[in-house]
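Components:
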Amino acid sequence: MLIKKSAVELGQLIAAGEVSAVEVTQAHLDRIAVVDDRVHAFLHVGSGSALEQAAAVDARRAAGETLGPLAGVPIAHKDVFSTHDMPTTAASRILQGWRPPFDATVTARLRAAGLVILGKTNMDEFAMGSSTENSAYGPTHNPWDLTRIPGGSSGGSSAAVASYEAPLATGTDTGGSIRQPAAVTGLVGMKPTYGGSSRYGLIAFASSLDTPGPFARNVLDAALLHEAFSGHDVMDSTSIDAPVPSVVAAARQADVAGLRVGVVREFSGDGYQPGVLARFHEATELLESLGAKVVEVSCPAFDYALPAYYLIAPSEASSNLARFDAMRYGLRVGDDGSRSAEEVMALTRAEGFGAEVKRRIILGTYALSSGYYDAYYGKAQQVRTLISRDFDAAFEQVDVLVSPTTPTTAFPIGERADNPMAMYLADLCTIPSNMAGNAAISVPCGLADEDGLPVGLQIMAPVLADDRVYRVGAAVEKALEDRWGGPLLGKAPQL
Ligand code: GLN
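Structure:
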C-alpha cells in the first residue's frame, strides 16, 4: 500500500520509475478523502496544484533528469507558512481567505526539492496552544483516539502524518509545537537549532523562538526533510550562516556507543503520568544497553522556563500581531463609511482574534508596559540566560540530555480548553530548548499502560549539534522497532 510507505521508499520508487509521482499523490488525496472528515487535519486541500506538481516531477524524470531523494513525495504544510497558490490563515479568522503574494523560504525549498504540497494543515490560532483546539476552524482529532487532541500547535500536521494522509509534514516549534504533537501521535518531530531553518514568510508568533522543523514516521525521513528546507537564508536576519549539520548521515549512523547521556532531574515526579515515566525509564535503560553512559544531570533554572516563556512569547506576540490592523490583510469589520480607522481596527481585532490570542496580546502588552518591563520582561530575559547556562554546564558533562517530551499522553478534547494553566503544562519539558535555541527531537518510545497512547522521548543537543539528536534518535528507533516488530504507529487502530 503506497500510503504506508516511508518517504525514503516513495522517493526511491519514484526515482526508479516504479511508480509515478502522480500515482503517489493520488493515493494520498484518496486517503484524505476517506479519513479527513473524521480527523480534520487539513484546512485546505490543493488537489489540482498537487497533481500538477507531481506531473512536473514525472516529466522531469521522463526527460532524463536525476531526481532528488524527496522528489514527488507528498507533504502536508502547516498553515502558518506563506504559499502563493493556497490560502494562508494561521487558523485565524482575521486572515480568512488571505492569499500571500509570495512563498515562505521553507515553502520555496519544498518546491525546489520536488516535494508535492497536498494542502495546508490545521493548527492553534497563530500557533498559540498545545491541542489545536484554538483553531478558529474547529479542532483536529488524534488518529489514535478521535476523542483526543493531536497536540499543538502543529496538530493538523501530526494528525495528517499519523493517519497516513501524508508521509511528511512541516511544523513550527516556538515552545514545543513540533515535539509535543509528535509525541502524542507516535511520530518523530524535530526542532532544529534556532536560526537553522528560515522564518522568512512564516507568520510570526514569537520571533526569537519560532523554528520551522519536520514531522515524519521515522527518523531518517525527518532528517531528509530537515536537510531539504534548512540552511542559510539572506531573507531572515537571524538565519545562521553555517553549513547544515549532516543530519541524514547521522540518522543512517544510528549508534550511541560511548555516548554520554544526561537525564534531566527536574523533569520527573509530580504531574508526570506514571506510564510516561515508565516508558522514559525503559528508554534510558535501552540507551545504556546500547553502550551509552547514562548519568543524572541537574538543570535548576529549567523550573522557571515555563513562567519565563509565558512572559517572553506573549510580549513578542503582542508586538508581532499589531500588524493585523484591518487595513493590510484579510478581515475588515464595520467599514461602512461611518467609522474611524481606529474603530474599524478595534472591531476587526475583537471579532478576528480568538480568546487565547487576545489573552496573549493582553499579557504581553502588560509585561512590556513602562513600569512593569523590568519586573516582568526583563526578569524573564535573565531567566533565559540562566537556562542557556544550565545547558552549557550540562553539555560539559554529557553529549545529549534526555527527558519525556511531554508529561502526559494525549488528553481528551475539551479537558483543558477552559484551563490555560493546565494547557501550558504540556510544554514543560520542551520550552527550555526554545529559550536556549538548541536542537531537540522527539521519538516514539512506547505506549503508556494506563491508556495505550504514545509516549515521546525527547533528546536535546547543543546549538548546531542537530546531527547528534538524529544519531541517538535513530539508534533508539532501531532498537525499539526490533522489539516491537515494526514502527509504533503500526499499533494504532485502523481508521
Ligand atoms: N504550547 C505553547 C504555546 O502555546 C507552544 C506553542 C508553539 O510552540 N507554537 O505557546
